[in-house]
Design goal:
Blueprint lengths: L10 E5 L2 H15 L6 E4 L6 H12 L7 E5 L6 H15 L1
Helix pairs in contact: 2-3
């Protein structure tokens, strides 16, 4: 199953779920004063990060102005393991 994402910005923030989307949208609005557009994308849980990262990779290939991707994931009980997991997903997504 291939996921298609609509990319509306040159900076993306992939977060774990809907609560994080609401938090980061409010935080970015407050901190950036709408000077810089960052699209916040709901991954739909930690198990969907790989699919979303692959879809982001495919979508931004056609966007030469793309600049950056940030990823926010809960550390749960092991921050090192969570970090390694995201790094592995990023490598696999290309």
């Amino acid at each position: 199953m291939e996921l298609k994402l609509k990319i509306d910005a040159d900076r993306l923030l992939l977060v774990e779920g809907r609560d994080e989307v609401n938090l980061f949208k409010a935080l970015l609005k407050h901190c950036l004063d709408n000077k810089s557009e960052i699209q916040v994308i709901d991954a739909g849980g930690i198990n969907k990060f790989p699919v979303n990262l692959k879809a982001i990779h495919e979508s931004v290939r056609a966007r030469p102005s793309f600049q950056s991707l940030g990823v926010v994931r809960d550390a749960d009980d092991n921050a090192d393991s969570a970090f390694r997991s995201i790094c592995d997903h990023l490598r696999k997504a290309g």
